[in-house]
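Weekly modeling sync, notes
Attendees: S.R. (lead), two postdocs, one rotation student

Agenda item 3: backlog of single-chain predictions. S.R. asked that every request posted to the team notebook include the full sequence so nobody has to chase files. The rotation student volunteered to paste the first one in as an example of the format we agreed on. Action items at the bottom.

Example entry:
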Amino acid sequence: MIQAGQLPTTVVSKCTLYNWIPWRFRIPNYYCFADNKYWLTNLDGYLRICREAKRLDRNYTIDKFDCDDFSAVMYCYSRYKYEINGVARVMDFVSRHSYNLIATSDGKIYVLEPQTCEVYTLSSRPKRFYSLMFALIIW
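Predicted structure, as returned to the notebook:
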């Protein structure tokens, strides 16, 4: 099990993090930045966190433990267990799906599907499931 401090981290301000978000994803979405500083890790670090969070062994159950719960677990688990708060929780009203965004220490934003730990760049994401239009995004 990974402990806090065992992942490489970078600290950025919420303004820096917001500036990494491409313009086309800023206007139609509502962003909430809960912190002033963000501790980020690299893509491999987020995948390690996601795989460990999946070991909590919860099964998908409609309306009890579904996509919004998986995204909440990844959001909270990365903060609680690893002190990494570069994971955003996305409630996407167009695709009617919940997932995560991750900000990596090299200044990139990725889409993370917390149920499978699949990662997509913003340009390669399947828009049917990850529209990023009219979404609530909590960092």
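Discussion: group reviewed the output briefly. The CA atoms of residues 31 and 137 lie 5 Å apart.
Action items: rotation student to repeat for the remaining queue; S.R. to check formatting next week.
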